[in-house]
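To assess whether ligand presence alters the predicted conformation, the chain was also submitted together with flavin-adenine dinucleotide. Input:
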Amino acid sequence: MKVTEQLKNSNETIISLEILPPTKGKSIESIYKHLDPLMEFKPSFVNVTYHRAEQVYKKRPDGNFERVEIRKRPGTVGICAALMNKYNVEAIPHLICGGFSKEETENALIDLHFLGIKNVLALRGDAAANEKFFTPHPLGHRYAEDLVRQIVTLNKGHYVEEEIIDGVKTDFCIGVAGYPEKHFEAPNLDTDIHHLKNKISIGADYVTTQMFFNNEHYYNFVKRCAEHQVNVPIMPGLKPLTNQNQLTMIPRYFNVEVPVDLYNEMMKAKTPEACDQVGTEWLLAQCRDLLKNKVPVLHFYTLSKPNVIYNVLKQLF
Ligand code: FAD
């Protein structure tokens, strides 16, 4: 079912999970082990992230270096198909602009359509590891809004290959990313929301947010979006903070703040178990407050801590 239909049919807050494909060489069993306990809570969706290829230099036998592309976490589409099969859950693949030509994107969308996938999250992606700024593929897209436009166009049966007449229409429900504390490149939140609004005007159906640890950022974002006439569902993205390294790593990578109370509690925790406990309690309090405010969805970045998410969900439902 499409995200939009699911939300229309549900009077209660629904649960959505996000996972990463395993690193190359690892079994899909690691994903099942991660998700099996969480399926008890009947998530409506499982998002599967996409990780672009990285360019690395490998030493050749003659001593020279050659530049090669490696993908550390392939398998997004395969995992989506496997999850739909195993758990009968809607899987949502993430699609990115970075590294893809429009034709490659079209071919990926055709695969997804053939697999019966109804939802996609359309993203720009970050700069490649060897680049300072995001550089689009020469035949690809610069912004997520361009990717949204391509998906909307395919939904109307118009293909990049213009010779195709009467092409089959896809029917993707399209999600996009939103940033309650603004995207790190945006000069200010209003400008960022202006660009978010473009993605919605072009045809995106809902927004999933970057993680936040202070719900006020989410409420303010929803309010500011409404002022910009962004009236689609906005799903809060939630992640447990579970170790002291994350106190500096998460703000640096995701441009989000760690509230002072959370910082202080985490700094007092002396063992991994105590850190997990701090993260569990903080996330639980966030979720309780969001539920009280009747958010449409709780979207969990499960990453390496499914046990914390499990404990939170067990206490909530
Ligand atoms: P855009 O919407 O294109 O925005 C990027 C920046 O450009 C913003 O600052 C925006 O304000 C600005 N902008 C947008 N349009 C215009 C315009 N027309 N003119 C000028 N400026 C403009 N990354 C991955 O690689 N794989 C994933 O699976 C993945 N999943 C994610 C899931 C979620 C829920 C979120 C929040 C992020 C995810 N990301 C993922 C990270 C994301 O790719 C990065 O944050 C990226 O830097 C921006 O992507 P975007 O889709 O928000 O880009």
